[in-house]
Design a protein that fits this description.
- This protein has 195 residues and is mainly α.
- The chain folds into two domains: 3-71, no CATH class; 77-181, Arc Repressor Mutant, subunit A (Orthogonal Bundle).
- 67% of the residues lie in helices and 5% in strands.
- It is built from nine helices and two strands.
- The chain has a two-stranded antiparallel ribbon with strand order 1-2.
- α4 crosses α5 and α5 packs across α7 (131-140).
Length: 195
């Protein structure tokens, strides 16, 4: 290694250390948002297969570190296998599981109802009687939220809910905890508002 390369490696090491120090307190989703912004700024092609493989490996490492035993930490899992393992029992649960799959396995954070329907077919699931209605119900439950321009995205609650499946009791606890927080917040605002 020549002297110039050693200087460059030290600079790279310092930059990486600084970046880690700055990102350590953020959650994984925020870190990825920052990385995507930097990639866009520098014009880095994120569509190449090499970048996709690197990103998938990093996603798996982050998932392994934060949620041991989560299904998303598997290297290659088809939508059919994912739904089999999560065992959704209602249309709402199936929509949320499909949204989770799009988000974590297809890197599609914003999707439309047709994307859910298409993935449902790919997963060899029974056709929804009304996909739009199922998506609206999942949105009303707070498991999916609007992302603008007709797109939807998986909510934090939806993500925790799917992580809990197929354990129905744990999934119910996730929903119950979210409802309790909303009620408390509403109560606090009611007390602070003038009469």
């Amino acid at each position: 290694m020549n002297e110039q390369a050693a200087v460059d490696e030290r600079a790279v090491h310092a930059a990486v250390r600084d970046l880690i120090d700055r990102l350590i307190d953020f959650d994984t989703e925020t870190r990825w948002r920052i990385f995507r912004t930097v990639q866009t700024f520098f014009g880095i092609d994120t569509s190449s297969s090499q970048v996709s493989e690197i990103q998938a490996g990093s996603n798996r490492e982050a998932i392994n570190g934060q949620r041991k035993g989560a299904f998303a930490d598997r290297e290659k899992l088809s939508p059919k296998d994912f739904l089999y393992q999560k065992s959704p029992q209602t249309d709402i649960e199936r929509v949320v599981c499909l949204a989770y799959y799009l988000t974590h396995f297809r890197d599609t954070r914003h999707f439309k109802t047709v994307d859910i329907s298409t993935l449902n077919t790919e997963a060899a699931q029974v056709k929804f009687s009304n996909t739009a209605f199922a998506v609206v119900n999942a949105t009303n439950a707070g498991l999916i939220v609007p992302a603008g321009k007709g797109f939807k995205q998986l909510s934090a609650l939806g993500e925790r809910y799917v992580d809990a499946l197929p354990d129905r009791e744990k999934a119910k606890e996730v929903l119950s905890a979210a409802r309790t927080r909303r009620r408390r917040k509403g109560t606090k605002n009611d007390k602070e508002s003038p009469n």
